[in-house]
Design a protein that fits this description.
By secondary structure, the chain is of the alpha/beta class. The chain is built from 5 helices and 6 strands; from the N terminus they run H-E-H-E-E-H-E-H-E-E-H. It has a single domain, classed as CBS-domain (Roll). Strands 1-2-3 form a 3-stranded mixed β-sheet. Strands 4-5-6 form a 3-stranded mixed β-sheet.
Length: 148
């Protein structure tokens, strides 16, 4: 069974963060530069929130507020759903599907050590399925015609 630690071993432990006093514009710039769709808000090594592109669009750009003036503490999700390194892909999928979210900060000993996205989870599940299909094909080919 694949855990979050397995995904983190493949993708690395990159965490892009800003503080609650940073602006939405700064978050959008970072998302563009790092090609990510969410940023965690961290202060004094504590996770305070998460901001996604969707948050920025719906809470700032759509109501025509200034992204250069609105601070992240006004748009971030403060009750962040997180996972631990020992959580399974199934738990990640459950959290994402039931709460309609696409990014989960990964926590270890109270610190954010990475992010898992819906894309990461789907890619891992597809990889598992491909391995299973190859195994079954090998099994079938190895046993075809040997019983007649």
């Amino acid at each position: 069974m694949i855990t979050v630690a397995g995904i983190m071993a493949k993708k690395g432990k990159l965490v892009y963060s800003l503080t609650s006093d940073d602006t939405v514009f700064a978050a959008l710039e970072m998302m563009k530069e790092k090609t990510v769709r969410s940023i965690v808000v961290i202060e004094d090594d504590q996770l305070l929130g998460i901001v996604s592109e969707r948050d920025c669009a719906l809470k700032v750009l759509l109501p025509a507020k200034s992204a250069k003036e609105v601070k992240l503490d006004k748009v971030m999700t403060k009750q962040v759903v997180t996972v631990g390194v020992n959580d399974t892909l199934e738990r990640c999928m459950h959290e994402m599907a039931s709460k309609n979210i696409r990014h989960l900060p990964v926590m270890d000993h109270g610190k954010v050590i990475g992010m898992v996205s819906i894309g990461d989870v789907v890619k891992e599940i597809m990889g598992q399925q491909e391995e299973h299909i190859k195994y079954l094909e090998s099994y079938i080919k190895g046993h075809s015609g040997s019983y007649y």
